[in-house]
Design goal:
The protein is 43% helix and 16% strand. The protein contains 32 helices and 27 strands. The chain starts with 42 loop residues before the first strand and ends in a 29-residue tail after the last helix.
Length: 970
């Protein structure tokens, strides 16, 4: 995009009231009014993209320009006598414009652009400018939705009834439409949810109003009426029509209610019956965007202005109008509800400010300074002990809940005090129940920061990590440092180490405010995250912090797991193994399972544990602890072990065992990669070549969902099919290839696989299916070699069906060896003995010169048929030449007797015609062709190797996450 130096901003077009610029030469240009940002009365800007050139006429005067077209001339009338600067257009005319000039006219200047033959133009106004889109010849201008809709829309007459202090505008719609009517500054806006062309001929006299302009967008029609801001606005619906009254007596608006979202999200919900559509507009005077929400009759409006940080709801006579300083406000109309929100939520006051004042008993757990913070003193029981304390708080909470009933503004302090006590006492399930009951009674409390923070903490303590993650992601907790600590801890449980470190660092200032047990857990989790991100120094410091906290043995063992992993990375394997073995003896499966896995891995690496014994231990661990990163690590280790032992089915079964139930864990992607790589190594890289073909086929079918999409998957199927062909499992090979042709491939790839399929069908003597495979995969621009192969196969199939002449027509002048082979076969079946004998003779060429190399079975068949053919046409000269040339090779041949008979001819002494026929019948060229195809398939598959390539061992799985879940959950 280029432009004059005075305007560096990129030319843009927004959806605006005046943005029905899609309507060619529509009555929209007068709507564009001066913008304060214009730097000159007339500012001409030029920009281009590959489709068209954009010319904008902006400025205080330029924005009022009018556009018309006369033949090939596009004329822009500018209301200034001074000619604008068009040097940019003259020096470098847009593509499709032959000339640019200006001319003086009474009261202004006209800019004339003469279009080349075939060029086109679109015009309109937006963003305080009149624009032209110029299309070069051959680049047709699109028929835009707004233009097409407006051109086809009904014409709606507008009639004005005016007095000195009031004007009524009647919009005579023929069907019910939604509308929004409101004042914005010195203008009244009327927005309809349907496209129409307004006939303003009956609205020329507007009384106290001074001007009315309309515009149509893709799915709306809008009218802007300039009127003094002291005039009230009202609206009346009459049948399907609408009457807008400006001036006269004020009419109170009602029927629109604004509330917070019941879900607790940081959003507003406007209850407005019959809401139909949200329309975004741009004010041509101010230049800002705002939204109007239309609604069906009867009239309903907002009686006073409502404002928040993110938006302002304007008073309306009907419908809804929203101003916003943001560019990401979402306005959604759905039935009787209009939702207002932003991607990160609106900035709203907490719901608790609307609650009735509550009496806080002396000694009850008090609210923490941060919403997700747990305080040690909450668990204090007093002289009566735990039971008395619990009963006291429980009774108060029950009384409060009973008194609240269905009142959403009833106090919740007593119930929150009970929840605080339960969380600090380690009773997470009970705390979650209390907090859920609060939200069930008053759904807007889901937007209260402390409610979400306490529930998230309780859910973490009972291992409901994903539910807790949703709580801490609530907009009410955005940026809160105590919530960031919990988010770091959750990320550590999920194996997202980088995010865990970010969370812990963001909340570092408040970690010491948590109880000792959580300080220890946070320290161990942060240490593990530092370890996994390579910061060993931070790991040591954080482990020391965790060990310094007086906490339970379970939490101490969790930290010891991280310490063992640190020893391992520092090369102190013996110390690491000793710690792992000690932790593995713990009676807590959540802690002992990752330790036992580490012991198995280290002993395997040292050679002190045999693979079969290791597999047995891993199978036990696989079922001992399930559902988190530890299980994924066990499965990966087990799959790798089975692959290294050549137990392919066991390996794939183990790797597939995780299924989709843990797909959300970060390690699940690595496990799926292991599974994919194992399958690839078996069926693409030769790992399964050591299996019997039928075993390989069964393994493939059992895990065929792992076949990758694309060329690699297709090659897997082709390789397996070729192996099946080698052992005469032709039906199974054809089934594999046919599935590829019918369901997975297009173009050249489909033609290639269809060629293999046709070959298999012909080997199985199914000529009709072979033809179908060839004909159904025809396409253009195939490689020459592939075309040649397909032509020979098609001719062979036609020959098998007895269509000899058609086969020869297909071969035509093709002189390739494959075509020559089929042509000779056709001549033989036609009993054209001379042509067949000559063809077989040519295929042999000068093979007789290599007299020390025995003839192959296929070569013997060719020689026999050549001799028999020459005999049947009594070509003694050719027979004598063959006998002389191949005499040294006959004694060592497999069919020496048949060769002697064929080369002796009918005049060869004791040879009779019956013996010649017997010799010809023994020369099976079809068997030779099948053998050649099998050899070709073996070569393509790599089947000529002396031994199968074993499966490659998978990459060593990473050590399991030490802190798989909090000790309290174990």
């Amino acid at each position: 995009m280029s432009g004059v130096s005075s305007s560096k901003r990129i030319l843009r077009t927004t959806v605006a009231v005046a943005a029905a610029g899609a309507v060619v030469l529509s009555p929209l240009a007068p709507l564009a009014e001066e913008l304060g940002a214009a730097t000159a009365p007339v500012d001409i800007r030029v920009g281009a993209n590959p489709r068209f050139t954009r010319v904008e006429i902006a400025g205080v005067i330029g924005a009022r320009s009018q556009v018309r077209r006369e033949g090939q001339a596009v004329i822009v009338r500018i209301g200034a006598t001074a000619a604008p600067d068009i040097s940019r257009l003259r020096v470098d005319p847009p593509k499709g414009v032959e000339s640019v000039e200006t001319r003086s006219v009474p009261g202004g200047t006209e800019l004339v652009l003469t279009l080349a033959e075939g060029a086109d133009v679109r015009s309109g106004s937006a963003d305080g400018a009149v624009w032209l889109n110029l299309y070069a010849p051959g680049r047709a201008a699109p028929v835009e939705a707004g233009a097409a809709a407006t051109a086809a829309a009904a014409v709606i007459p507008v009639t004005a009834t005016a007095t000195a202090d009031k004007v009524s505008l009647d919009f005579a719609w023929t069907q019910p439409v939604g509308a929004a009517v409101f004042r914005r500054g010195a203008a009244v806006w009327v927005v309809f949810d349907t496209v129409a062309r307004l006939d303003m001929a009956g609205a020329r006299t507007l009384g106290p109003a001074t001007d009315a302009r309309w515009a149509a967008g893709a799915d709306y029609t809008a009218v802007r009426i300039a009127a003094p801001d002291n005039l009230p606005v009202s609206v009346v619906s009459q049948g399907s029509g609408w009457t807008v009254v400006i001036g006269g007596q004020p009419v109170a608006a009602a029927g629109v209610e604004v509330t917070r979202a019941d879900s607790g999200d940081l959003a507003l919900v406007v209850r407005m019956a019959g809401a139909t559509r949200a329309v975004w507009l741009t004010d041509p005077l101010v230049g800002d965007r705002f939204a109007a929400v239309t609604a069906l009759a009867p009239g309903k409006g907002l009686d006073h202005r409502r404002q928040s940080v993110d938006l302002t709801l304007l008073p309306t006579a009907h419908g809804l109008a929203i101003e916003t300083p943001t560019d990401d406000l979402r306005v959604t109309a759905d039935g009787d509800l209009v939702s207002l929100t932003r991607p990160g939520g609106l900035i709203l006051s907490p719901p608790s400010v609307l609650l009735a004042a509550a009496h806080v008993p002396t000694g009850a757990p008090q609210k923490a300074r941060l919403p997700a913070l747990i305080l040690s003193e909450w668990s204090a029981t007093g002289p009566g002990g735990y039971s008395a304390r619990f009963r006291e708080l429980q009774i108060r909470a029950a009384e409060e809940a009973h008194a609240a009933g269905a009142n959403p503004r009833a106090p919740i302090e007593a119930r929150l005090a009970l929840a605080r006590f339960l969380i600090a006492s380690g009773l997470g399930y009970e705390a979650v129940g209390i907090l859920n009951a609060i939200i069930d009674q008053a759904p807007n409390m889901a937007g209260e920061a402390e409610v979400r923070g306490l529930r998230g903490a309780a859910r973490v303590s009972i291992g409901r990590i994903q539910e807790a993650e949703a709580d801490f992601a609530a907009g009410a907790l955005a940026g809160d440092p105590s919530a960031r600590v919990w988010q770091g801890y959750i990320a550590a449980q999920q194996g997202d180490w980088a995010e865990a470190r970010r969370g812990f660092i963001a909340g570092a200032s408040v970690i010491d405010s948590f109880p000792e047990v959580w300080r220890a857990r946070f320290g161990a989790a942060h240490a593990l995250a530092a370890l996994e991100t390579g910061d060993l120094a931070a790991t040591k410091s954080l482990l020391a912090y965790s060990f310094s906290q007086p906490t339970s043995a379970a939490d101490q063992l969790t930290a010891r797991l991280v310490q063992a992993r640190l020893f391992e990375l520092e090369g102190e394997g013996n110390r690491a193994l000793a710690v792992y073995k000690a932790v593995a003896r713990a009676p807590l499966d959540g802690i002992s399972t990752p330790a036992r896995l580490a012991v198995v891995r280290m002993e395997l690496d040292r050679g002190t544990l045999k693979p079969d014994a290791a597999a047995e231990q891993l199978e036990t661990l696989r079922w001992r602890w399930r559902g988190d990163a530890t299980e994924l690590a066990v499965i990966r280790q087990l799959g790798s072990l089975y692959l290294s032992q050549g137990l392919y089915r066991e390996a794939l079964t183990a790797l597939r065992g995780a299924g989709t139930r843990m797909a959300d864990l970060p390690g699940a992607m690595d496990l799926q990669m292991d599974l994919s790589n194992a399958f690839r190594s078996l069926f693409l890289e030769g790992g399964a070549d050591g299996l019997q073909p039928i075993q390989a086929l069964g393994l493939f079918y059992d895990f065929r969902e792992l076949t990758p999409v694309g060329a690699d998957g297709d090659e897997m199927v082709r390789r397996l099919a070729r192996r099946l062909v080698n052992v005469d499992l032709l039906d199974q090979a054809a089934e594999l290839l046919k599935h590829q042709v019918d369901n997975r491939l297009e173009g050249v790839a489909k033609a290639q696989v269809a060629t293999d399929l046709a070959t298999v069908y012909l080997m199985d003597r199914q000529a009709e299916k072979a033809l179908q495979a060839i004909w159904s995969s025809r396409t253009t621009l195939l490689p020459t070699a592939l075309n040649t192969e397909r032509r020979a196969l098609e001719a062979r199939a036609l020959m098998e069906l007895g269509r000899f002449d058609h086969a020869l027509e297909v071969l035509d002048r093709d002189a390739t060896p494959a075509a020559a082979e089929v042509r000779a076969e056709v001549f033989w079946k036609q009993e054209n003995w001379a042509a067949a004998a000559a063809a077989y003779d040519r295929r042999l060429g000068e093979r007789w010169k290599a007299s020390t190399v025995p003839l192959t079975s296929a070569e013997e068949s060719l020689l026999i048929r050549a001799g028999v053919g020459y005999s049947l046409v009594d070509d003694q000269g050719a027979l004598a030449r063959l006998s002389r040339d191949y005499a040294p090779l006959v004694p060592g041949a497999r069919s020496a007797g048949a060769l002697r008979i064929a080369l002796a001819g009918p005049n060869g002494g004791d040879v009779n015609p019956a013996e010649i026929g017997t010799a010809a019948g023994g020369a099976d060229t079809f068997a030779g062709w099948v053998a050649a195809m099998k050899a070709q398939f073996r070569q393509q598959t790599g089947g000529t190797r002396t031994a199968a390539t074993p499966a490659r061992p998978q990459a060593q799985p990473p050590a399991p996450a030490a802190a798989a879940r909090p000790a309290a959950a174990a």
